[in-house]
Amino acid sequence: MTGILSNIRVLDLSRVLSGPWAGQMLGDFGADVIKVERPGSGDDLRDQGARLKDREGRETGERSTFLSTNRAKRSITIDLTKPEGQALVRRLAAESDVVIENFKTGDLKRYGLDYGSLREVNPRLVYCSITGFGQSGPYSQMPGYDLLFQAMGGVMALTGVPEGQPGAGPQRAGYPVSDLTSGFYATIGILAALHHRDTVTGRGQHIDLALLDAQVAATSSMAMSYLVAGQLPVRVGMGSQLTAPYGDFDCADGKIMIAVGNDKQFTQLCKVLGRPDLAKEERFATTPSRVAHKQELLPIVAGLLKEQPIAHWIPLLREAVVPAAPIYNFDQVYEDPQIRHRRMVRTVPHPLAGTMQVVANPLNFSETPLEYHRAPPLLGEHTAEILRDVLQLDDAEIERLAQQKVIAA
Which of 43, 79, 114, 179 is catalytic? Predict the structure, then answer.
């Protein structure tokens, strides 16, 4: 392995989204990520999403949701309910720098795989536990999914059609924002703990991360209005509570998004629209005044934009450096020249498909560029390889473990 974390090994005991997302990020950075899965079934996400097609165009058992969060990993199948399986994980932890797990609070302690137990075999271990509600508190034993955390974390209080309009009410974000936000926080925490271990103490530590906490933290830019002034944010649909004009507008043949963030941008927008006088009116001259008078401003802007098609406005707005964009479907996303220039789709070799496309990591390092050479693994694809390379087991011992169904080699 090469990359900025090529000296790091990660033992990924997690399933579904948040933990695997963090593991994939570390794998993109060059870490050796060993994904431990249940024999026979593996990660729950192996049953979710569209099916990958093989070289002949036939559907395989590999599904898109799993493929989205598990590249740059090796898969080993181990039965954690068996004592010998638990012993294998402890041995792997002894050879690792990081453990990521998202079991329900307390579950891994039954197997001797909790932080306290693994710290005894490897004091340098950074152990990240990701749960719905955290390791402590009145809800700590409860399971949870993204929908709950969007509801409890305030996302739905911010998202949806404004009150009093048709279709008003709370809405969820269109992707599992709580899971992926938690995955990002987990990655940051792991990197910080590794830095502290390697530069300060020589010892690892436990990271307790809750999806609810992560989602509450992520909405802080909106929540601070409540904390500092008692003002509750409200749903404003596509609009903004802080600036105007900001939202979706009809053109002659469809919608575009315009996001004016300051007075200069508004002045430029007015020039593009052929109404430079609007920027000089007192009620529209500053961001606070535009917000206060947006019910008067928005119909004017909307009426002017509707006179021409999207292809007329977008080049003019971009030339004037006014933030504006078309609203894409995913087929349009990946055909956009900026997305193609940034190489946000990469190709990796795959044992069934020959090659497959993946969405690239957005980080671009000047000295340690990311490499895309390891596709999301088949279930247990690397079981024997890991046991040989990391634990130095011979073929006879691997065969014995397989016969006893501790592993599925």
Answer: 179
